Q: What sequence folds into this?
């Protein structure tokens, strides 16, 4: 080769190129890489040559192309699994040893002694018995005990009359007001139920009748049951009320300026002891609200409830009532009750009792001003019998 100063011996071994040692030569140019040849058959090894001089290190040849990888051989077949060895026989179970004897139970320990019980303390002394409570409404004042309930009933109608222990008429008290504005019955009604009973349809100042006050909405029967003697006295006296001589006023009058203490206690006794329960003498059915105005068909209209009386005399004895009438009443009213006409000559006695049973008994028991004295017939049983007799419209006809 050009430029080399030594001989280069090339030896071929398989597919690899080996540089043989030679004398130092000049470094040759890098040759072009040769085309990879087909691997030839392995030749016999040649005889060992003489060792040549070490040549100059040649340029590193390019790495030859890696030969193709040979195919993977087939895996060897899996050997057959050997047969399982036979299971040995289970050895015989040894005999159970005998249970050892149970030890004796130890003796229980001694129980400790119970401590001594402390002494019971002494019972405290019993307190003194309290004073007995007073029955409602408490002890009656002496003035109440001395009062006259029949005169009190007469005063409920006309306190200024002599029957009511008054002076006789209103002028003797210097009063010019109409009597209806000072009579108890005008606001509270004969039965004491106010506008919830027999006066439920009665007109007054606000409902077209200027000559008398409106009927009260106070149930005086309930008031009596809930107040003491002194409280009821104070309510009658009413020092907080309107002036007695003031008409056109529905407030309670100040009776402390006109009635004396005895008259007021008479009224208290009447209400507590002499007032007959309405249901003992008759039955009253009130249908509808107490008298009032309401709008009807676009106009203010006075609407009245209806009142229906029945069972006059309740369980009284008509025969006994007839005997009582003959001895107490027939002298003035005649055998059939037609001699004296009542209610401005429009009703016989029997007719009046049947139409106004709430008022008739009151006048029979407590009188009627100077016309009839109080106490003519006072017992409730006698009033029942008298009512039972007068309920007979054949024996005691209408006018």
A:
């Amino acid at each position: 080769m050009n430029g080399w100063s030594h001989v280069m011996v090339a030896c071929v071994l398989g597919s690899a190129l080996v540089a043989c040692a030679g004398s130092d030569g000049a470094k040759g140019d890098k040759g072009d890489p040769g085309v990879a040849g087909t691997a030839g058959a392995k030749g016999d090894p040649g005889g060992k040559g003489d060792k040549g001089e070490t040549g100059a290190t040649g340029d590193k040849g390019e790495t030859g192309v890696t030969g193709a990888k040979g195919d993977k051989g087939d895996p060897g077949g899996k050997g057959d699994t050997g047969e399982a060895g036979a299971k040995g026989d289970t050895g015989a179970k040894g005999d159970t040893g005998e249970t050892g004897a149970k030890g004796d139970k130890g003796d229980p320990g001694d129980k400790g002694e119970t401590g001594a019980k402390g002494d019971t303390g002494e019972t405290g002394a019993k307190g003194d018995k309290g004073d007995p409570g007073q029955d409602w409404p408490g002890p009656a004042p002496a003035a109440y005990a001395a009062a006259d309930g029949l005169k009190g009933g007469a005063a409920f109608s006309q306190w200024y009359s002599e029957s009511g222990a008054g002076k006789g008429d209103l002028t003797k008290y210097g009063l010019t007001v109409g009597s209806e504005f000072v009579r108890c019955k005008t606001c509270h009604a004969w039965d004491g139920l106010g506008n919830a009973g027999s006066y439920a349809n009665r007109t007054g100042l606000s409902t077209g009748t200027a000559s008398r006050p409106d009927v009260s909405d106070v149930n005086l029967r309930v008031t009596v049951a809930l107040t003491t003697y002194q409280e009821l006295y104070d309510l009658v006296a009413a020092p907080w009320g309107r002036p007695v001589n003031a008409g056109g006023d529905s407030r309670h009058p100040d009776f402390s300026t006109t009635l004396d203490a005895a008259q007021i206690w008479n009224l208290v006794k009447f209400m507590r002891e002499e007032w007959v329960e309405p249901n003992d003498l008759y039955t009253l059915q009130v249908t509808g609200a107490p008298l009032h105005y309401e709008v009807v068909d676009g106009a203010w209209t006075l609407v009245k409830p209806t009142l229906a009386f029945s069972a006059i005399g309740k369980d009284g004895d008509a025969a006994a009532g007839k005997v009582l009438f003959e001895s107490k009443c027939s002298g003035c009213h005649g055998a059939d009750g037609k001699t004296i006409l009542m209610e401005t000559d429009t009703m016989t006695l029997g007719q009046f009792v049947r139409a106004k049973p709430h008022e008739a008994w009151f006048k029979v028991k407590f009188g009627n001003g100077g016309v009839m004295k109080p106490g003519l017939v006072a017992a409730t049983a006698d009033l029942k019998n008298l009512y039972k007799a007068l309920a007979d419209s054949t024996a005691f006809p209408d006018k």
Observations:
- The chain has a mean pLDDT of 82.
- The first strand starts at residue 10 and ends at 13.
- Residues 318 and 389 are 4 Å apart (CA to CA).
